[in-house]
Batch of 2 targets.
Target 1
Amino acid sequence: MSALLFTCAVLAALAGCACLALSQERHWKAVTGTAPHARRPLRIAGWALLTASLACCILCERASFAALLWPLLVMLAALATAAVLTWRPGLLHPLARLVAPKAS
Amino acid sequence: MDRSSAPLTPAPLSLRQSMTVLHTWAGVAVSAILFAMFWMGTLSVFDREIDRWMIPQTRLEASDAPVSFDGHALPAFRAAAPDASMWYWQPPRERQPFGTLGWNDPVQGWQTRHLDPATGTLLPPPESLAGTGFIFPFHFSFHATWMDIGYWIAGFAAMAMLVLIVSGLIIHRKLFAEFFVFRPQKHARRSTLDLHNMTSLVALPFHVILPLSGLYIFFGIYLPWSAAVPFGGDAEAMDAAVYGSFNRPALSSPAPAQASIDAMIADAEARWSARHGIAARADVVMVQHPGDAAGFVTVRRVFPSRQVTMDADVITYDLASGAVLKDWSAGPVRRAHGWLSGLHFIQFDHWPLRWLYFLAGLSGCAMIATGLLFWLRAREGRHTPGSARFRTMEALTIGGVTGIIAATGAFLVANRLLPEGAALWGESRAGLEVWAFWLVWLATFLHAAVRRAAAWAEQCAAIALLAMAAVLLNAATTGDHVLAAATRGQWAVAGMDLMLLAAAGVAGWAMLRLRPARVAEAPLPDPALAPAE
Amino acid sequence: MSHTLPRILLAVFGGYACAAVGVAAVGAAVPGSGEAMLLAVLLAFPLWVALVIWVFAARDVRRVAAVMAGVCAVSALAIFALPAGAGAG
């Protein structure tokens, strides 16, 4: 199993969940304190990153393992994102600024 | 409202309301059982590692020494089990650095011994059931084997789990809106519900597929008559068609010769490798009626190391001549069943997945525990707080959650405290460890009945103390503290100690959060009626 | 809820009956092979879950009971009519 592809799968899942979270009004407000911005691009980016994560899983594993690995990676990413949003929302600030530089 | 003006028939419930009733009833009925299954199931992810920790003699270094059936297992069987009607052999593999011999002794019943590949000799009998012998079977049968009642309870709980998930989704409706929401700073009931929703949603595929695949694994127990219908009601024929088994009675006359079993294993592996295009290993060898003219050898490929699908290849050989009696490989539907079963057993070699399963299992435990907690707080408002009914529900909840965890800690501590060869009132050392588990679990229910809400924090404290005691006792009795174990390459032992320390930390943190004062009197959010905040 | 108990009984025992007889009927239709029977098993459990949801969601539980009775009756007929099933009965 390729360690690099696996790492990419993990990172893409994390980034995807972060984008999807930021696309929601309550979480955007919690991170930046401003009105929500760029919701659709964030949502598209989020789903695209999760799909990229799935692609990495399929590339570095047999299909039958990828089918198990990807949903669990998304679980891990979602839990990590929720934890960050609960206790350290500022960590997502750079991502918010990347998407909407003028807003924050 | 007086009786004369009350409606004759109650207003019909909306879908959400009826699902709330279903979710509550099913949850009340099975949540404690489900928590036990999820807890033991999550631990079973690392059952072989728990074996290493609890049975120090098996902390062997991985050996490349070749282990052959004819060279190692056969002499051992002939010496230890000459009268057995069945010999069972598992060669060493990644998470099991020794071979396993099993046989049914006519007097003493099923016996298990381990073979050290480096020396080629048998280890002393294991004196503990440990992970694979206690924790794993508890997960699917609660060790209640009379009339398979434990299996039926597990099956009922699994069906209830699926119903709980579907009804929960209908109640919650918005899958996405609260996906990442956890507000611990709010009052306890809101944050409990947040956590319950989140742990259900983030691992939703896991929570659906694991109970379902568990039902598939035991379909022969749940639908025995139906499964045998295509075979005219012949259960053995069903077994032969679905699991590739073979059977013939002994002839009670000695075998004229005995073919090389290593050659049979090699032949099976060659056939499977050619058939599937992947290097295949045999991992279970059974010799039935050894020494008899009608003896036969079944070579199985139960848990491939790089495939999910399990138990899809079986070849049976004649013991005397080595001729192939039956060469069975699973058809497409059976392979699908094998894939679903394999994703439940997770015996393949994939450490990242193993850890993710562990995390998913823990999220399931959190889901069930928070569901129970939320329901308990809801009942607290509706019953008089001192009522016997509420106190019973409270005691069952506390004992069912922190109680079983504490009992597991006691199981581990007893394992380190009991001396070798310990026996009491007819119970072996392994049996005494199990007694420790059941007695402590019972005690936690009684403790919860007496101490009520304070029992949560007190049992968390007990869990933390037991976990730390286990780590200290492991170091004291075996010398394999974390650094020593890691240096020796005993990652299972080091990992177990680290997990115990982490568990102690979490239990300590939980003890602080579960103090009764934290349960505020804020209004209870009714998930069925109020929109999400 | 006064009408919860009949629903629970219907969901648990009625559902089990439908699953058991349904799988048996498929098995009787394709004798000698475990594949069809296994496919029925794989479908039976999710369908049973759907049935349980329906039992509790439906306004009139008698309609659900009638459907389940029908499934059982048709399946039972199939089992005793088909040659493989006759041996199992």
Note: The two ends of chain C are 39 Å apart (CA to CA).
Target 2
Amino acid sequence: MSKTTQATTTSAAARLHRREMLLGTGVALAGLGLGRRVLAQGRGTMNLSFWTFENPQQRPWIHKRVRMFTERNPNVRVDFQYFPFGDLGQKLSVGFATGTAPDGFVSQDWFMPTWLSRELLAPLDVRRLGYDSKEAFNTDFPAAFVEGATQGGEVYGYPLWFYGFCNYLNTKHFREVGLDAERDWPQDWEQLGEVARRLTIRDGERFQRQGFKFAMHAAQWTMIHLNAIVHQCGAKWFDDQGRCVINSEAGQRAMTIRASIARQYGAEDPADTIATNPLPMMDWLRERCSMFLNHPIPPAAIISQNPRMQEEGYYRPVQYPGVQRGRGYSTTYGFNLVVNARAPRERQEMLQEMYRFMMSDPADAWADAAPFPLARKSGWADNPAVQAFPHVNEIIKARDEGVLLPRSTVYNELADQVHRGVQRIMLNRADIKETLDAIAAAVDRASERARRG
Amino acid sequence: MSQASLSQATAPAGQQEIPARRRTRLGLRYGRRLQLIGFAFVLPTLLFFAAFKFGPMLWAVELSFTSFDMVSTPDWVGLENYERLAEDPVFRASLVNTFVYIAGSTVLIALVGLGLALAINTSVPGARACMAVMFLTNLMPIIAVTLVWRFLLHPFGLVNQLLAPFGVGRMDWLTDEDLAMPAIIAVTAWRFAPYFMVVYLAGLLAIPRDYYEAAEIDGAGAIRRFLHITLPLLMPTIFFVVVVSALLSSRIFLMPYIMTGGGPGDATRVLSMLIYETGFSYMKMGEAAAISVVLFAIMLVFTVLQMRIFMRNERGLA
């Protein structure tokens, strides 16, 4: 054999060898993967995926209960993922679009119409969730919240947390200006303006302390703060035909109240408020603002920003101011545990088992995530540990008497339009009527598009 | 006579078999084989671009003629999305904002970048060190930079504090409808002008010193030297900077998104933000794709126009 031929043969052999190696490796890997799957199926392992939002108290509790469930059910594995609060909706949308949505997830209640209108959620079996009947299920939760989780008589969401907003007062600031927070807490919007004016400290154009402030940083917060005033004024977001009617006289009155704290009483600086804070309640926690409408604030959040405030306890939540004195109520919102309609049936059933387990110890939920109240009425509110929490009944009252955000498939469009409108009114002194007309027109256009598909 | 037979006829006796050996088993000539091998090397890249760059672009164009909520199957709606855009005041406002932003930031970047390059291109001690420091603005993550500027432009931030001794009162840079867009344009120029300064500097260094020396001997002052030597010879670089910075500006998203969220009202909402909101917040992917196509068309027209001006200028210089 010539040298050249020998070299060619060796080279060919080497190439063949490499191919064989690659082929062999590929087959081995495929076999390994298949084998593991077969083995897993043989053991009956079920892999579930579950998404929720980040919250320093709520997310760890959910994660803990999921872990406990998997420990009790070794054949179940849960791929647990969480996302920033504001991102979860978008992540889910993309997940549904790409076929990568989780089997189960926590849904903010204002997203329920979006999922339900697209038939993305599976109906839940209330017996599997631990209730004898749908009636028993319905009576265990606030009616308005259950209404958002049901459609056509079917239950699509297992209500988790549900809370209203309270007016958080800095009682030390009240004392400094000769007010008693227990007696002088503002019970209507005019009183709020007057008290806020007294609490405000200004140095020329600069606010050293705002007596009160509305959130200006995000559409969702704009809606939450404004929605209660809209209801209190007797205004509606939509009429029975689905037309946006926020530009009604009652709507204008609501927006005038919203604007009055800055415009009439000079007790807040919207341009300062919009600017920089990572947490909406930060100015209140840092005592740069004396009153702020907020969801229940966990002690841990106060300790992290202002340990002295927590230690000396110079704060308290009170009810929202009302248009009618003493009859204030806030916006409420909550979260549902839901199941992806596209998940295989056995996973849907297992998820319901998991949800039942998660919610089987409401006192544990309170212990870990206080003071966020649960949506369910039974099994926790009269617990001594719950009742020992300072001002817990104010928090529960705000939940029970609150009104929900509008449920609409164009909710995001509405919230964005209202947010932009509030910015124009508060920052650029735009005319309230004209701005509300523009909001209503834009929302009607969005509704029309949604109807046409 | 064919080229092959000609080469056989003229080749020395010992080399007559070469053409035969240069044919592959498939009967391909050596040159063609080389071409195919070269093509095979670039094929993965071509496939990558086709799949991940041009594919999505074409799909976006197709989507713009559909109604698609990211969940259901896309429905063909023809030109309806474009008709809706034409009626939508938010789209019109965003379109105007995008033009204002492109024009403002392109002009500012081009001028500031040129000014910085001219300043650096002197024999002043420490000028090159200054260039390095200024270029640092491009190395910092844009999110961090934007957040810092948000603090600086706060009503009681550092910018207003620095302006106060000059009798400038409170300026609500990011919350006043008239100031928000100029503020974002200024931050954009701060961020990108040093990058283009380096491009200008390369152009300046390429101009032969002889021209300046000859002009100086003829009595030309600094301004005349700049107008009659620097500017004409730097024109290709200026056009490059204008084209690239305009394209960069047309795609801007993070700065207005983080600094103002598109507000106050719609004062700083640009098309890229509207695409994001329409697609991911309102789940109207068809409409978002239509806005993308409009943005693409603007960029295309803008680029073609500038290229034509550039070519004409080049010919003029030649």
Note: The first strand of chain B starts at residue 66 and ends at 67.
